[in-house]
Amino acid sequence: MAKKGNRIQVILECTEHKASGVAGTSRYITTKNKKNTPDRLEIKKFNPVLKKVTVHKEIK
Question: Are the C-beta atoms of residues 16 and 54 closer than 8 Å to each other?
């Protein structure tokens, strides 16, 4: 059986969308291994409102 407790669910939110002032938000839900990556995630993902790839950061 697999061990439990290392992977946690995190929410990624677009940084450019907040600064642009356009209504709505772009958020993704993913998992990360908190043992390997203790700091916050920063991934490039597609923003459907802005219609381009932007940087999404982990929020708490």
Answer: yes
Say whether pLDDT at 1 is over 70: no
Q: Which SS3 state, helix, strand or coil, does residue 10 take?
A: strand
Task: Look up the CATH number of domain 5-56.
Answer: 2.20.28.120
The phi, psi pair for 24, rounded to 5°, reads: 90, 175
Give me the residue spans of the domains in the chain. 5-56
Counting Cβ atoms within 10 Å, is residue 35 exposed (0-12), middle (13-18) or buried (19+)?
A: exposed
2, pLDDT greater than 80: no
Place of tokens 């950061």: 57
